[in-house]
Amino acid sequence: MEQHIVKGFDRDLDKIKDHINKIAGLVESQLAYAYQSLNERDILVAEKVVQRDKKIDKLYQELLDMSIHVFALRQPLAIDLRYVISSIKIASDLEKIGDQSKNIAKASSWLSKLPVNQKVLSVDNLFDLVNSNFRKVVNSFNEEDLKDVKAIWLNDAEVNKSYDILFRETLTYMLEDTKNIPSCTQIISVAKNLERIGDQIQNIAEMIYYYVTGNHITQKISPKEMKIYKKEKKYKTDISNIFKKAKLIVKK
Amino acid sequence: MAEDQIISISKFNKLKKSTSKKVTISAQNISVFYSGKMAIDNINMNINQNEVTALIGPSGCGKSTFIRCLNRMNDVIENCTIEGKIILNGTNIYNPEVDIVKLRTNIGMVFQKPNPFPKSIYDNIIYAPRLHGLVNKKSDSDELVEKSLIEAGLFNEVKDRLNDSGTSLSGGQQQRLCIARAIAVNPSVILMDEPCSSLDPIATAVIEQLIDSLKKKITIIIVTHNMQQAARVSEKTGFFHLGKLIEFSDTSTIFTNPKEKKTLGYITGRFG
Asked: How many other CB atoms sit within 10 Å of the CB of residue B165?
């Protein structure tokens, strides 16, 4: 894209981009630390994640101020307008990912206090999926590159599938032995937060597509692709069936 | 009927709504030359009735030349030649038998700088209607002056001093007097060539509100350098560049997602 005649306008837009990157970098490290605290049952790392979340909130507020400044002083139009609006939305989604990382860290603190013989299921698969999509979406934002955006958007179905598998397994462990319930409920909480991060990443992909093209990504997905996506996204676990089993176990 | 030809009622109504706008002015293959040098090049544009159409573009792009074609104001410029047709309600205004005075009654014009006659406010309004024999009795004249000033949103400010000179008013009031003068002869179209460029933001807002209320009765075409103004007042916007109409579309499309790269560059301040 060509530069603006008024260079200050470009500087203001660049500042917004730098700020988004700052938030994204911090969120990425928060997610990594939350995962580390979970794997290593490290309560200190978990506390660090909780503390650092305030920094993300502050950066998000600064970005709002910057955007208001651009609206008031530059009156952006067309792609510039979409860029500023999308940046606010992207920063809001990043801030939520920060919150969800904090929730994972809190769950890790909980888990670290439990006896070591408690069964804790691995969330590696779900984490890897979410982490890889996060890196790709931040890269797409920086490069204004749409080649991965559609795949990232559709990949949310895979995240849901992975969450569903984990959820089913965790319920099975809880049904097997009630001693597993405390750890398993925390793992469900971690998995749910990761699944929600997947949704935020999908939102970011949507906003990148919108600001670059001016169109909505869902308009670019064929009915056939959408049908497959919706089918895969739907949870397969039938909770009512599991409750029936649980009742039987309790009766026994 | 083939299956692919069947459309839903809602789609039909939408289509009907989008195509049912009546065209007041149709510019067909308009080119203008000053001393043989091309100023505007093959412009085709349909102006819808009771809509505001804004023309934007950098200085010298031909937007003022174009609107001056719409009421034959370019006829008074020496060595100016015009090709093409301007169809107003079914008649080509460049037909030799068209009465130019009558045409300019039907298509009024407001200029960049307010230009009231050096006469009283009352006479400024009634001058043209008297000339065209639209009023005979004093009571009719009074009524028309009041009606025109009310429509121009000026009546309450000047009702006690109708005999004062039009030039004694403020810039914004003078411009509204010029609009009142134009609407006194009951035109179907008003052309506005940067009508707010010499006004402060409050006087500009009053004129913009006036444009919004006038469009219920009159078709308005406005040339403006202020893109926010074009966005605020118009339904359709045309972007001119180097004598060509680059893009003509709904105002919201032009300012949110223009199709042409040149339009995008201009409205986002990337080239002038």
From this structure: 15
- Chain A: give the shortest CA distance to residue B231, in Å: 10
Q: How far is the CA of A131 from the CAs of A51, A99, A115, B130, in angstroms? A: 21, 15, 29, 80
Could you report the predicted ipTM of this complex, rounded to two decimals? 0.77
Q: Is A5 on the interface with B (CB under 8 A)?
A: yes
Pairing of strands B23-34, B37-48: antiparallel
List, in order, residues 6 or more apart from A92 with CB less than 8 Å away.
A60
- In the numeric block, the tokens 């809602």 are attached to B10
Q: Tell me yes or no: is domain B24-267 CATH 3.40.50.300.
A: yes
A116 vs B: CB within 8 A? no
Question: Whole-prediction pTM value?
Answer: 0.82
Q: How big is chain B, counted in residues?
A: 272
CA distance B97 to chain A (A): 46
Q: Structural domain boundaries of chain B? A: 24-267
CB-CB contact of B25 with B81 (8 Å): no
pLDDT tens, position by position, for chain A (252 residues)?
789 999 999 999 999 999 999 999 999 999 999 999 999 889 999 999 999 999 999 999 999 999 999 999 999 999 999 999 999 999 999 999 999 999 999 999 998 888 766 666 788 999 999 999 999 999 999 999 999 999 999 999 999 999 999 998 888 888 888 888 888 899 999 999 999 999 999 999 999 999 999 999 999 899 999 999 988 888 777 767 777 777 777 777
Structural domains in chain A?
7-251 (1.20.58.220)
Q: What are the C-alpha distances in Å from A219 to residues A97, A150, A224?
A: 26, 11, 12
HEC string of A198-224 equals HHHHHHHHHHHHHHHHCCCHHHHCCHH
> Alpha-carbon distance A193 to A230, whole Å?
21
Interface of B with A (CB under 8 A): 227-228, 231, 255-258, 264-265, 267-272
Which strands sit side by side in the sheet containing B52-56, from one edge to the other? B107-110, B189-193, B219-223, B52-56, B236-241, B244-250
Tokens of A37: 């605290």
Distance, in angstroms, between A174 CA and closest chain B CA?
A: 53
Pairing type for strands B236-241 and B244-250 reads antiparallel
B17 φ, ψ to 5°?
-65, -40
Q: Say how far apart CA B3 and CA B198 lie, in whole Å.
A: 58
